[in-house]
Amino acid sequence: MPAYLDYAATTPVDPAVVAAMAPWTAERFGNPHSPHRWGYAADAAVAVARAQVAAVIGVAPDTVAFTAGATEAVNWALKGVMLAAGPARRRVVTLATEHSCVLETARWLETIGCGLTVIGVGRDGLVDRAALTAAIGPDVALVSAMLVNNETGVIQPVAEIAVLAHAAGALMHCDAAQGFGKVDVSGLGVDLMSISGHKIYGPKGVGALYRRAGIDLVPLLHGGGQEDGRSGTLSPALCVGLGTAAMIAAERMAADADHVAGLSVRLHDGLGAPFIVNGGDAPRWPGIANLTFDVEATRLLAAVRGIAVSTGSACASASGQPSHVLAAMGVAAGMRISFGRFTTVAEIDAAAAALTAAAARLTRQAA
């Protein structure tokens, strides 16, 4: 049977989110920035959504700004901090396993004169803490670390990293696109947090950036400044979708975690081919399993038709580039199998059977 097991790339939109968005796509079409009843109604819906997102983080609603997605939020956070930083603090510290939107933004900042230090990770995917501690000095303006890795599910000690950053007088940014709504993000102690709607059963094209009160960011987009420095007309439908998805995720956090943990065990138990769990020795979100089999990953991927899995992030797959995350861990290649709220036991069993059969067939062919 077909099985969609690429939840780390994007999740199905929750039907309750679709229902909440529906009125704002047609009859309630007002611009939320307009001074009349249509605009006021749309603005009120956006305000509710903002409060729903803020509640998951445990912050005031006015510290949350909507964006077009996590990539924009990351760009705004990193560029906004570094372009505003004084001459004494011109360096960014981040990790080798970050999402490409963090790494590429940091590399762009290098081209305009900022310093960049990229810290390696161990075989388990966790940051080299000694190297990180040594790297965070008085010239560092910003430290950026992902909470849940999008390829392995490895959970970095973000709260501890934030303490190190603050001790050096630096700000702390967390890419929480894969962690928001799945694990508790309310006690991380970060100054900036980027999130995405379509990773938590919400719509694509919307995300948010949390900014601790008092942090001024140089605008990324110039114009009307609707989102306290972020310009552009908001889509009430997309904001409502993200807010509703955030609210549901908070309500279902424990149930969703139990569900994917059970599916993870079933997947591992059902695989009849030898495999290694990449990052398996570290704390991980169980809804992402990155496995290395005894057969070549791309051949195995091609052999399991009807099973939606991947060999890395959607961004890397589109570019044809090998996984920089696995390379940083010293792993040649792996297969990412990710699942979530709507994944069934039957889909997990189908995937395990298909992977087992394909691995056996490829092994015989190679003999």
Topology diagram in text:
Elements: E1 3-4, H1 15-21, H2 37-57, E2 64-67, H3 70-84, E3 91-95, H4 100-111, E4 115-119, H5 129-135, E5 140-146, H6 158-167, E6 171-175, E7 192-196, E8 207-211, H7 236-270, E9 275-277, E10 288-293, H8 297-303, E11 307-308, H9 314-319, H10 324-328, E12 335-338, H11 345-366
Parallel strand pairs: 1-11, 3-4, 3-5, 5-6, 6-7
Antiparallel strand pairs: 2-8, 7-8, 9-10, 10-12
Helix pairs in contact: 1-7, 2-7, 3-4, 7-11
Q: Detail the poorly predicted runs.
A: none
With strands numbered from the N-terminus, the spatial order across the biggest sheet is 2-8-7-6-5-3-4
Query: What is the fourth-level CATH superfamily of the largest domain?
Result: Type I PLP-dependent aspartate aminotransferase-like (Major domain)
Return the CATH architecture of the largest domain: 3-Layer(aba) Sandwich
Total count of strands: 12
Features:
3-stranded antiparallel beta sheet, 12 strands, 11 helices, alpha/beta, Aspartate Aminotransferase, domain 2, 367 residues, 2 domains, Aspartate Aminotransferase, domain 1
What does this structure look like?
It is a single chain. The chain contains 11 helices and 12 strands. With 367 residues, it is of the alpha/beta class. Strand 3 (91-95), helix 4 (100-111) and strand 4 (115-119) form a beta-alpha-beta unit. Helix 1 (15-21) runs antiparallel to helix 7 and helix 3 runs parallel beside helix 4. The longest helix has 35 residues, at 236-270. The protein starts with a strand and ends with a helix.
